[in-house]
């Protein structure tokens, strides 16, 4: 059975995701689609709108065969670590292809970009360092460095100012670094831009726009942008946001104080003092974020810090987690179950269907993040121990 992997968040699963999933199957002639999906906290430093089992159910109803959780340590990391963790999981599951959506729509520019960056790696890294010393944010520093090395070639390069292109580039970089045999395939992103908040006239909207509409009005307004199965699941579940979690976050910041905050992952350069002052002064999440955001610290970068504050994710814990060490099964179809059986001897990481007495620091972080996420939903803790994989 030929397996193709995709990397997803499904926050929530919408028509654009359905198009991607179907095209991934068609373009690679896949028998099985394996989705590596972030858990309860996402790469942009946000809580998922609904829990990971609901989103896994959406994925299976949309045609995925296996849904594997991307561990917290990678799901909430910067793009290179996020991509590397996902690629390692798909490689462990013996995927022959990885298919990602991109603004570019063709693989060749990514190949040229990767070759150019490897050729001029020293220049690239020096330019990033200089830009950051001048006070620029990391994404802006990357963009300037990339523009610099782009002048060294006449080959068409991928536009790495676009969010899906950035992730696609890092997937391919990770494939090369771990020496995987997976073949990358890309398809052009359809519909609205990744960050677009307005809902379009056609049936494909961004997840950002769908979430904004959900919190501003109600779930009925997004029905036309989602498969009916996703809409029904979304309609049945309470919706999570930073507004719900901010009281817990504010308490954590004020209780810990700047000295303790400095030990949290991603908190650097004295920003702990800004977080502490903002928590003392602002009663809402939006006000807090506006007080902390600066030229150096983007909204996304700050949110990732705050997720780590909320979950107590220490720099020392992150140092222990260098690669995925298990495959957390969130859901599977009958086809997916047959695939797992067929490749059982070749799969290079243990499959975990339900959390038990594991001491793995990465799995412990997944369990803790679930419990904290559920606090904002006023639901019971321990669901990672109680909830079996979704079966369709």
UniProtKB/TrEMBL annotation:
Record-listed E.C. numbers: 6.3.4.-
Principal EC category: ligase
Residues at which ATP binds: 7-20, 101, 164, 189
Cross-referenced SUPFAM superfamilies: Nucleotidylyl transferase
Predominant location: cytoplasm
Record carries keyword rRNA-binding: no
Record's catalysed reaction(s): cytidine(34) in elongator tRNA(Met) + acetate + ATP = N(4)-acetylcytidine(34) in elongator tRNA(Met) + AMP + diphosphate
Keywords: ATP-binding, Cytoplasm, Ligase, Nucleotide-binding, RNA-binding, tRNA processing, tRNA-binding
InterPro entries attached to this UniProt entry: Rossmann-like_a/b/a_fold, tRNA(Met)_cyd_acetate_ligase
Superkingdom assignment: Bacteria
Family matches, as Pfam families: HIGH_NTase1
Subcellular location: Cytoplasm
HAMAP family membership: TmcAL
Alphabetical list of PANTHER family matching this protein: TRNA(MET) CYTIDINE ACETATE LIGASE (PTHR37825)
Alphabetical list of NCBIfam families matching this protein: PRK13670.1
Function: Catalyzes the formation of N(4)-acetylcytidine (ac(4)C) at the wobble position of elongator tRNA(Met), using acetate and ATP as substrates. First activates an acetate ion to form acetyladenylate (Ac-AMP) and then transfers the acetyl group to tRNA to form ac(4)C34.
Record family assignment: Belongs to the TmcAL family.
Name under which the protein is recorded: tRNA(Met) cytidine acetate ligase
Record lineage: Bacteria, Bacillati, Bacillota, Bacilli, Bacillales
Gene: tmcAL
């Amino acid at each position: 059975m030929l397996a193709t992997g995709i990397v997803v968040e499904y926050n929530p699963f919408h028509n654009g995701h359905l198009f991607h999933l179907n095209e991934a199957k068609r373009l690679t002639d896949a028998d099985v689609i394996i989705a590596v999906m972030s858990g309860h906290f996402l790469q942009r430093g946000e809580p998922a709108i609904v829990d990971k089992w609901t989103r896994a159910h959406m994925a299976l109803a949309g045609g995925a065969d296996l849904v594997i959780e991307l561990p917290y340590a990678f799901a909430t990391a910067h793009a290179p670590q996020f991509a590397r963790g996902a690629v390692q999981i798909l490689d462990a599951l013996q995927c022959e292809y990885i298919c990602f959506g991109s603004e570019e729509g063709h693989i060749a520019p990514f190949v040229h970009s990767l070759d150019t960056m490897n050729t001029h790696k020293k220049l690239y890294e020096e330019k990033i360092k200089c830009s950051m010393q001048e006070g620029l944010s990391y994404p802006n520093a990357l963009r300037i460095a990339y523009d610099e090395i782009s002048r060294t070639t006449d080959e068409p390069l991928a536009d790495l100012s676009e969010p899906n292109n950035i992730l696609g580039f890092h997937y391919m970089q990770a494939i090369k670094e771990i020496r995987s045999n997976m073949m990358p395939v890309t398809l052009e992103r359809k519909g609205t831009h990744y960050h677009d908040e307005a809902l379009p006239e056609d049936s494909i909207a961004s997840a950002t726009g769908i979430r904004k509409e959900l919190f501003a009005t109600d779930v009925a307004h997004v029905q036309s942008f989602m498969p009916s199965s996703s809409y029904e699941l979304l309609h049945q579940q309470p919706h999570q946001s930073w507004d719900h979690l901010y009281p817990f976050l504010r308490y954590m910041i004020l209780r810990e104080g700047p000295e303790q905050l400095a030990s949290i992952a991603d908190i650097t350069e004295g920003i702990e003092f800004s977080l502490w002052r903002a928590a003392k002064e602002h009663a809402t999440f939006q006000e807090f974020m506006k007080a902390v955001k600066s030229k150096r610290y983007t909204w996304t970068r700050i949110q990732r810090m705050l997720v780590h504050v909320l979950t107590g994710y220490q720099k020392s814990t992150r140092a222990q987690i260098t690669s995925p060490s298990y495959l957390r099964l969130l859901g599977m179809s009958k086809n997916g179950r047959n695939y797992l059986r067929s490749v059982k001897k070749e799969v290079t990481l243990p499959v975990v269907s339900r959390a038990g007495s594991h001491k793995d620091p990465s799995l412990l972080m997944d369990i803790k993040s679930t419990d904290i996420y559920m606090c904002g939903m006023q639901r019971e803790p321990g669901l990672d121990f109680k909830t079996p994989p979704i079966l369709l």
